[in-house]
Amino acid sequence: MFHDTASVLFGVEGLQVTDADEGADGTVEVWAVTDYRAAAACPGCGTVSGRVHETVVTRPRDVRRAGDVVDLRWVKVRRKCENPQCPRKTFTEWVPAVPPRCRVTARLREQAGHEVTERGITPAEAARHAGISWPSAHDAFAAAADRLLDRPAVPVRHLGIDEHRRGRARFAVDAQTGEYTVLADRWHTCFFDLDGQQGLLGQGQGRTADDAAYWLAGAVPAWRDAVQVVCIDMCSIYAAAVRRMLPCAVLAVDLFHVVQLAVKAVGDVRRRVVRARYGRRGRSGDPEYGIKGLLVRNLEHLTGAQFTKIIDTLDRDRYGQEIAAAWIGKEKLRDALNLRARLTGSTPCERQVRDRLFSFYDWCAQHDDIPELITLAATISRWEDEIVAAVLTGITNATSESLNRLAKLEARLAYGFRNPLNQQRRVRIACTRGYRRQSPTATKNRTRTVTGRKPDPG
Ligand SMILES: [Zn+2]
Fold it and tell me: How far is the CA of 48 from the centre of ligand 1 (A)?
């Protein structure tokens, strides 16, 4: 309960401001005394004491006032306990905003923790601004973050898995053989909620099938049963972990990575052919070099002139026709992927997708003199079920990739982490911040209306 304007403005319950003055270096000097009834009670026996032993001045750190540092000087009384049986002879006053032995006000701790949690600055920066040490700022952040993160997991329908490297790989050179041996190559496997509001669900250390399975085994069975689709990159390690721990979930691979593989195959063929034809690597001025940017584009996004340029360049000789065969192979694969509902406006049937994939395999078989196409076809056929699942469900790993970028950014902001648990906490807070910020009026479940492709303005 405050009695005067200055104390109301200062706003720490239990402290009464007696004087305020301009201090040195633009600081504000605030003098205060205790105005808290319970402060006169002995913490040992609860007897209210009126006997003053001595008066001390403490200077707990407090939040800034309009950017200026506040130099708080709290005149405290040390009292004698009036109960002769009490083992405590004397005690000092304290208020809830500044607990005993605490040299930082509770609101400054809370502010430092909140700034790291919600504003995304580092604990080091928060500590510098608050004028406290890094451990204090980090403890405040950990307390605030754990309150947010220690919530029971909500069931997830679509789960994403991705990995990122934790720090730099370390190598040592063998003195005798001169060979490199890996000392440390640390990874985090991350699990994402692809269609809900939970962002990054958690991380496991390492990136083997066992590491991923271990994290999944830590979830309750009901949570595991609720997972319907798991989306991964084309990574057989995570596929093995998912089949082991989530046998009922449908496994889908991210279609971006499928197309990326096909585009890479076209590039490989082009580079090999150019080397065979000229005996050197491609240069600007070579016709094949001039269309390399066009070959990676989607067929439907090429203008008429660009399409003609590709055909004219590749139709000249057998070298060009080899590149053309790879390019057509890529487009045949994309034909199958383009059946997804997001582009066509209606859910495809499985037969349709497999038919188009068959025509891709057929094309590759007809051009079995191109090794890159054969490798591509073999990889695609190995992942066929997962690709079909991705086309039918339309689920992508886009959320995983974007959150993974945030995870890497967090490690850069921190200049690397020494403690993996601190890293996990910081990364999880960063990867759930966007979801926490959403206004309460925002649509809870993001639904994507199927609109089909936009009409070509040309
Ligand atoms: Zn006492």
Answer: 8
CA of 57 to the centre of ligand 1 (A): 22
What is the Å distance from ligand 1's center to 82 Cα? 7
Distance 7 CA to ligand 1 centre (A): 30
> Residue 437 CB: number of other CB atoms within 10 A?
9
Q: Write down the pLDDT at residue 457.
A: 63
Ligand 1 centroid – CA 81 distance (Å): 5
What's the gap in Å between 84 CA and the centre of ligand 1? 8
**pLDDT by residue (tens digit) across 331-386?**
999 999 999 988 888 889 999 999 999 999 999 999 999 999 999 999 999 999 99
Cβ atoms of residues 89 and 45 within 8 Å = no
Distance 51 CA to ligand 1 centre (A): 12
Ligand 1 geometric centre to CA of 103 (Å): 24
Q: What is the pLDDT of residue 451?
A: 58
Tell me, in angstroms, the distance from the centre of ligand 1 to residue 37's CA: 16
Q: Distance from the CA of 99 to the center of ligand 1, in angstroms?
A: 18
Full 3-state SS string of the chain: CCCCHHHHHHCCCCEEEEEEEECHHHCEEEEEEECCHHHHECCCCCCECCEEEEEEEECCECCCECCECEEEEEEEEEEECCCCCCCCCEEECCECCECCCCCECHHHHHHHHHHHHHHCCCHHHHHHHHCCCHHHHHHHHHHHHHHHHCCCCCCCCEEEEEEEECCCCEEEECCCCCCEEEEECCEEEEEEECCCCCCEEEEEECCCHHHHHHHHHCCCHHHHHHCCEEEECCCHHHHHHHHHHCCCCEEEECHHHHHHHHHHHHHHHHHHHHHHHHCCCCCECEHHHHCHHHHCCCHHHCCHHHHHHHHHHHCCCHHHHHHHHHHHHHHHHHHHHCCCHHHHCCCCCHHHHHHHHHHHHHHHHHCCCCHHHHHHHHHHHHCHHHHHHHHHHCCCCHHHHHHHHHHHHHHHHCCCCCCHHHHHHHHHHHHHHHHHHCCCCCCCCCCCCCCCCCCCCC
- Averaged pLDDT for residues 196-201: 87
Q: What is the mean pLDDT of the chain?
A: 90
CA of 80 to the centre of ligand 1 (A): 8
Check: CB of residue 76 under 8 Å from CB of residue 64.
no
Give 94 Cα–ligand 1 centroid separation in angstroms: 15
